[in-house]
Design brief:
single chain, about 160 residues, alpha+beta, 4-stranded antiparallel sheet
């Protein structure tokens, strides 16, 4: 089931603004695994008696690097407010006005939502991803789509 091609679902009212969409379960798993990995690798490095201070520091810095990568992967979110949408992906953030978003797509098999933009391009929005919490992602995609459509209607833009 998808937010864009689903059978007609009851029309839901757009959520109150501002609203933040993010894959909370995925984020929790990534940060928990990162913290555990940091603790375990650091503890191993500190407990090995034959290691010198520089080698122990290398263990801790390596553990910190693993945690930093997982923290970066947990960063994606989509924030909608009165003036538009901010899409925060892994390494990039992009601010969009409501008028720039033509359609919100989450098709079967998609790893995350795609926003079709007025310039003809498509922007992945990793903040809504069905990986661990499929129903939550579909609900979020529908909510973002309802917001986009209500803004288009308010602006009097036909054919969206």
């Amino acid at each position: 089931m998808s937010a864009s091609d689903a059978a007609p679902a009851p029309q839901q009212a757009p959520p109150a603004l501002p609203v933040t969409f993010r894959p909370t379960r995925t984020r929790a798993v990534l940060l928990t695994v990162g913290a555990v990995m940091f603790a375990v690798i650091s503890a191993i490095g500190l407990m090995l008696e034959q290691l010198g201070a520089g080698e122990r520091l290398t263990f801790v810095l390596t553990a910190l690097a693993f945690f930093a990568v997982l923290a970066l992967l947990s960063r994606p979110k989509v924030v909608a407010d009165e003036t538009g949408v901010t899409v925060v992906n892994i390494t990039r953030t992009r601010r969009l006005e409501w008028a720039e978003i033509l359609r919100v797509n989450l098709r079967p098999g998609d790893a995350w939502v795609f926003l079709d933009l007025s310039d003809g391009s498509s922007l992945p929005a990793l903040g809504i991803q069905p990986g661990v919490a499929r129903n939550h992602a579909i609900r979020d995609a529908r909510a973002l789509r309802a917001l986009t459509e209500s803004r288009a209607a308010a602006d009097g833009e036909p054919g969206r």
